[in-house]
Design brief:
Rossmann fold; ProC C-terminal domain-like fold; 2 domains; 13 helices; about 15% strand
Length: about 280
């Protein structure tokens, strides 16, 4: 990756977090450029990182190996169509972080013979603790796949999918997932408050417990079910709480929640693709 030149079209939250991750992982700042139609975003990015910010997408894509597309899904078609000809001549690797935009639509707007990798990161990428799934089209070489994976690994975990349609499930799981954990933290904190703990103590104990459980699960060779059983003594307090959650239908609730998110992701893909 060290010798690759990368430009970011769209330097909002996701574009900037990827730029930050790449620089933190040793990519020289002079290998990175960015563009944004929003002058404020250009200024914010330039003041945060010592990279060249451009106004013109044509100029930005002229001499690079990788173009990261980090605009909103609804802006993708309008972003790609004006640069289609230059992309077809220069043939950089395209990486799209846009939720829901399918490879077939990206190819139609950018050029059918281009190497394109579609990725689905999540918000913890902002603090380099993201989880990203990747899927490449058939024009992408294995070196380009490695490059895309290295770029996404600079902001956290990165894994490849075997089937593009699984992107909707990934969106429902890890894409939307941080919000599910925020909700669980929110309701645990509220419950502790109602049971008498002061707010700040309820907050910090909730957060550290979430962090500790995630760290333990990541570092353990056991699956979540085994870990749960290990910390649930027969006749103990945890057993009582888990019985309430399980009898209350937590498994069905999560299955229905993920199904609803997966369905919405597929709907959005259709909507943006046909726009
Ligand atoms: N943020 C996340 O956690 C997250 C997670 C997963 C995936 N994503 C994906 O990442 C992408 C970017 O999200 P974001 O949250 O970073 O959005 P954002 O903060 O709105 O950043 C996108 C930037 O691109 C600019 N832009 C629009 N059209 C452009 C063009 N033709 N050329 C150059 N710049 C252009 C926008 O300007 P204007 O505002 O003036 O339009 C905006 O400043 C989205 O497709 C989203 O689905 C984000």
């Amino acid at each position: 990756m060290k010798n690759s030149r990368i430009t970011f079209i769209g330097c909002g939250n996701m574009g900037r977090s990827l730029i930050g991750g790449l620089i933190a992982n040793g990519l020289p700042e002079n290998s990175i450029t960015g563009t944004d139609i929003n002058a404020e975003q250009r200024q914010t990015t330039a003041s945060q990182y010592n990279i060249e910010m451009l106004e013109d997408n044509q100029q930005a894509i002229k001499d690079v190996d990788v173009v990261v597309l980090a605009v909103k899904p609804q802006s993708m078609e309008d972003t790609l169509k004006p640069i289609k000809e230059t992309l077809s001549q220069k043939k950089p690797l395209l990486i799209s972080v846009a939720a829901g935009i399918k490879l077939s639509d990206l190819g139609r707007w950018a050029g059918e013979d281009l190497a394109i990798v579609r990725v689905m990161p999540n918000t913890p990428a902002l603090i380099q603790a993201g989880a990203t799934a990747l899927y490449a089209n058939k024009n992408t070489s294995s070196a380009q796949c490695d490059l895309a994976e290295t770029i996404m690994r600079s902001v956290g975990l990165a894994l490849w999918l075997d089937d593009e349609t699984l992107m909707d499930t990934v969106t429902a799981l890890s894409g939307s997932g941080p919000a599910y954990y925020f909700l669980i933290m929110e309701v645990m904190e509220k419950a502790a408050l109602q049971l008498g703990l002061p707010q700040e103590q309820a907050r910090i104990l909730t957060l550290q417990t979430a962090f500790g459980a995630a760290k333990m699960a990541l570092e353990s060779s056991h699956d979540a079910e085994s870990l749960r059983k290990q910390v649930t003594s027969p006749g103990g307090t945890t057993e009582q709480a888990l019985k309430v959650l399980i009898d209350g239908g937590i498994e069905d609730l999560f299955r229905d929640a993920l199904k609803a998110a997966q369905k919405r992701s597929a709907e959005l893909a259709e909507e943006f693709g046909n726009s």
